[in-house]
Amino acid sequence: MKMGNIKMDDYSGSNFLKENNARHLWHPMTDPKVNQKDSPMIISKGEGEYIWDVDGNKYLDVTGGLWNVNVGHNRKEVKEAIVEQLDKIAYYNTFINNSNPPAIELSTRLMEMLKIEDMGKVMFGSGGSDANETALKLARQYWKLMDEPQKTKIFSLKSAYHGVQFGVLSASGGIQWRKAYEPLLAGFFQVDNPDIYRNPWTENAEELGQICADILDREIQHQGPETVAAFIAEPIQGAGGMIIPPSNYWPLIRKICDKHNILLIADEVITGFGRTGSMFGTRAWGVKADIMSFAKGINSGYIPLGATAISKKVESAWERDHPLSAIMHGYTYSGHPLACAAANANLEIVVRDNLPENAERVGLYFLKELKKLKDKHISIGDVRGKGLMLAIEFVKDRDTKEPFAFNEPYPALVAKNARNSGVMIRNQGHRIILSPALTFTNDQVDEAIQGINKAITSASK
Fold first, then answer.
1. From CA 52, how far away is CA 55, in angstroms rounded?
2. Residue 48 zone, left/alpha/beta (φ > 0; ψ -120 to 50; rest)
3. Which pTM value belongs to this model?
4. Average pLDDT over residues 13-31
5. How far is Cα 269 from Cα 66, in angstroms, rounded to an integer?
6. Residues 6+ apart with CB under 8 A from 354
7. What are phi and psi of 125, to 5 degrees?
8. CA pair distance 316, 264, nearest whole angstrom
9. Residues contacting 83, CB < 8 A, separation 6+
10. High-pLDDT (> 90) share of the chain, %
11. CATH superfamily for domain 41-74+354-460
12. Other CB atoms within 10 Å distance of the CB of residue 162
């Protein structure tokens, strides 16, 4: 079979794929000219914690896809669940009064898993941006149903990343995501991050937690609590710098939200389902949010899926007789049968194999080895992590903590060198992000450390 001058049989060949990658395909989060210039990394196969490119080269996947392949690649149980559902029906919508069995099963499973957080309902979407967008919209609708329609403002953190749609992008703080699309939406405000490594006040974690909580408190009072709908944050900031807050920060934030009658939204897109060593990130801090958003680890990325869980407190607003109680929100693929079937099988593995506990145990070992790596290389300013959510932060000078600029090649060179050694990591600005599958072992940590050490040594020369 031919299409134009290309035989269909040639579409999967290594040379064809490399030559055509940037010809028609735009990649997220990059300048298209970069893809035209550089030979692409085309991943064609995965098994457990390893991946292979189209040339047959094997890599240890220390990125876990993109924070999300929590149960590992090519899991038989997840694939079988998808095929079993595919043999029944691939798709039917959940709009109005329609539903499908996998979506119902998943909603029940999630509410069982979230009993401690007192969640009552869930809405499904296609990913993390959807989940957070849903959370923001429901927060505003909640206050209208509670006859406080003036409560519309959303607070978040300066380095936050909550997604790419205009609502969640407006809540995101990083200028690198916002600049090309500004002006963004009105009514969104960012406050300082509880960044222990980079803050102008103190090196004492508990003191920093109190300082940052007080800043939020004062800004809410300045804006007027009667106008504020919600505060949204990640339990641990991921794309915004892998910022692990002090242990007192989230409990203090919960108290501030209660004090001012504001909803607390936990963006658990990355942290949900075990990555931090606890089943949920907020649970690790002993805090119950009002709304929680999920994606990534919910089904390990086998089929796109996001979810937004609503507490029983928030749910109760929809029990009121109100002209705006209809949820005029949702997506074509909300509750997609294949995605939900994959999630049910995925979460069965997470619970059965106690992957949060493995993430905590292996994560502690990984962090210990990263600290040894820091002692060897002066370019490493900081290493940090919680569970299997870790980072290496490179600096030009340890004393001043001056980072490498966004366009300086050193961090990207480290990532490239590591790939050449068979270890897949990724740099985000001047940081290296490490987020392997929650099935990772100590032996694989050793393999990763060996590759990263070699990569840094080579780049430093």
1. 8
2. left
3. 0.95
4. 83
5. 11
6. none
7. -140, -155
8. 16
9. none
10. 88
11. Aspartate Aminotransferase, domain 1 (3.90.1150.10)
12. 32
- Mean pLDDT over the full length of the chain: 95
| Phi, psi values for residue 441, rounded to 5° | -120, 165
pLDDT level of residue 58 (50, 70, 90 thresholds): very high
Give the bridge partners for 122, in sequence order: 309
Nearest one of 414, 372, 412, 370 to 392, comparing CA atoms: 370
Helices first, then strands: H and E counts in the chain: 16, 18
Angle at 226 between CA 166 and CA 258, to 5 degrees: 90
Q: Which amino acid is at 431?
A: R
Residue whose entry in the numeric block shows the structure tokens 């949920």? 280
> Alpha-carbon distance 307 to 334, whole Å?
9
Question: Residue 273 in 3-state DSSP?
Answer: coil
The CATH topology of domain 79-352 is Aspartate Aminotransferase; domain 2 (3.40.640)
Q: What CA–CA distance (Å, rounded) separates 386 from 390?
A: 6
Do residues 54 and 20 touch, judged by C-beta distance below 8 A?
Answer: no
The pLDDT value given to residue 406? 80
Which residue(s) pair with 432 in the sheet?
Answer: 392, 427
Helix (H) or strand (E) holding 314, with range, is helix 312-315
85-123 pLDDT, tens per residue?
999 999 999 999 999 999 999 999 999 999 999 999 999
List, for residues 342-386, the tens digit of each pLDDT value. Answer: 999 999 999 999 999 999 999 999 999 999 999 999 999 999 999
**Burial environment of residue 315 by CB neighbours within 10 A (0 to 12, 13 to 18, 19 or more):** middle
The beta-strand segments (E) located in 134-227 are 153-157, 188-191
Domain ranges of the chain: 41-74+354-460, 79-352
How far is residue 82's CA from residue 78's CA, in Å, rounded to a whole number? 6
| Amino acid, res. 115 | K
CA quadruple 234, 168, 69, 246: dihedral, nearest 10? -10
